[in-house]
Write a structure and sequence with these properties.
Elements (H helix, E strand, L loop, with lengths): L4 H12 L8 H17 L3 E5 L13 E6 L5 E7 L8 H4 L3 E3 L2 E3 L3 H20 L6 E7 L10 H8 L4 E4 L15 E10 L3 E2 L10 H13 L9 E9 L5 E2 L2 E10 L2 H16 L7 E10 L6 H12 L16 H15 L16 E2 L6 E2 L19 E3 L1
Parallel strand pairs: 3-6, 3-7, 5-16, 7-14, 15-16
Antiparallel strand pairs: 1-2, 2-6, 4-5, 8-12, 8-13, 9-11, 10-12
Helix pairs in contact: 1-4, 4-9, 8-9
């Protein structure tokens, strides 16, 4: 990978300097165009699925799927093309490099990982025949819960032996073998409007009811180990002299396992169903969510293979100088192919994976920070670290 570092950086610069927020389909598709060109140049079979929005839905970018190889264990790689940054961010904060760190919107989460996967397979192809078949999903909507791409990922995972998610590595390059589940809860509280100074008794304040619910929701924190509940956005009312007729609450719920996630979801829905302020009602909608990824024995074995890859080189002439996340990917491929194990059971609705590693991309930090910069020591290995 070191010998192709300049090429990697050149392509990464192109990707980062494109605004590809989830709801900027032109930008997401521009990133998809670059990925599709690289797929085609390396001999992948490419499928591109345009998003067809339903009434009232926002237009999203295309789902891009590359396939290569037809023998051996089946590897699923997943990376996303969208970012959280608004239009104009790439112009204000374009791609740059300072020492061994790259900066720019989405360079960390996750355009560096998206590109690292492509380069890793390129190197594997240079070394000879693929020891496995690879399907690479380039996801256009991960930042909103993969509402468009999730069904495709679920179907592909049913015929997969090993799954690698190329999100940025944790501090020190640590990989992820378990991840909290996330539920996005939207609550709409309805009350009755009235003049707050003349006839407040005729009103029923949706804002006051929402305040009670926020307190009750936050009291769920700590009731189950590792569970967190945060009402992060509350919006309601029209004027200060009007009893609020409506109020919305946007809640983030996270839990380390399926049992606790179901328990906290049920508790939250009971809070929604109840009422403290007479005359108010509330409705709840579970929006995008990810079920917990609980560590399995097979995932633990795959983690050990990846860890071994950090301290040894692939015994292939074309890859003598590798010391990067690409090396980890290559070794995981080769060693997983040697040991073949049971079929992966990655059904996104349950979030259960037999062999799944997440945060398999480059080292990164402050992925959603406004400036994308942090004070930290550079990584010990000659990997390119990313921030932004």
């Amino acid at each position: 990978m070191q010998r192709r570092r300049d090429e990697y950086i050149d392509v990464l610069r192109v990707l980062v300097d494109v605004d590809s927020g989830t709801f900027a389909p032109e930008g997401v598709n521009a990133v998809a165009d670059v990925c599709e060109d690289r797929f085609g140049g390396a001999g992948w079979n490419v499928e591109r699925r345009p998003h067809q929005p339903e009434d009232g839905e926002d237009q999203l970018g295309d789902l891009l799927i590359g396939r290569i190889g037809d023998a051996g264990p089946r590897v699923l790689m997943i990376a996303h093309m969208d970012t959280v940054f608004p239009a104009g961010t790439a112009r204000e904060r374009p791609f740059s490099i300072d020492g061994d760190r790259a900066f720019g919107p989405g360079v960390c989460d996750m355009k560096s990982g998206l590109l690292a996967g492509l380069f890793a397979v390129d190197l594997l192809l240079e070394a000879g025949a693929l020891p496995c078949s690879i399907t690479y999903v380039c996801n256009p909507d991960e930042e909103i819960g993969s509402t468009f791409s999730k069904p495709a990922i679920q179907e592909l995972s049913k015929v997969t032996d090993v799954a690698l998610v190329l999100e940025p590595a944790r501090g020190g390059g640590e990989l992820v073998t378990a991840r909290k589940g996330v539920t996005d809860l939207r609550i709409e509280v309805t009350g009755r409007a009235a003049h707050a100074g003349v006839e407040p008794h005729r009103g029923a304040s949706a804002v006051l009811e929402a305040a009670h619910k926020v307190i009750e929701l936050h009291e769920l924190n700590g009731q189950w180990p590792g569970v967190t509940v945060n009402a992060g956005v509350v919006s309601g009312g029209t004027r200060p002299n009007v009893v609020a007729e409506r109020c919305s609450i946007h809640v983030d719920i996270r839990a380390p396992n399926e049992a606790s996630l179901q328990a906290v979801e049920e508790a939250a829905l009971r809070i929604v169903a109840g009422s403290v302020v007479p005359g108010t009602t509330a409705e709840a909608r579970m929006a995008a969510n990810h079920r917990p990824m609980e560590r399995t024995e097979a995932t633990g074995r795959l983690l050990e293979l990846a860890r071994e890859g950090r301290t040894c080189h692939v015994d292939l002439a074309a890859c003598d100088d590798l010391d990067s996340s690409a090396l980890q990917i290559l070794l995981a491929f080769r060693r997983a192919c040697e040991g073949r194990g049971g079929r992966v059971a990655f059904a996104g609705a349950q979030g259960r994976v037999a062999r799944l590693l997440q945060w398999f991309g480059l080292d990164g930090g402050l992925g959603r920070n406004a400036s994308g910069r942090q004070a930290s020591q550079p990584p010990a290995s000659p990997r390119l670290a990313t921030e932004g």
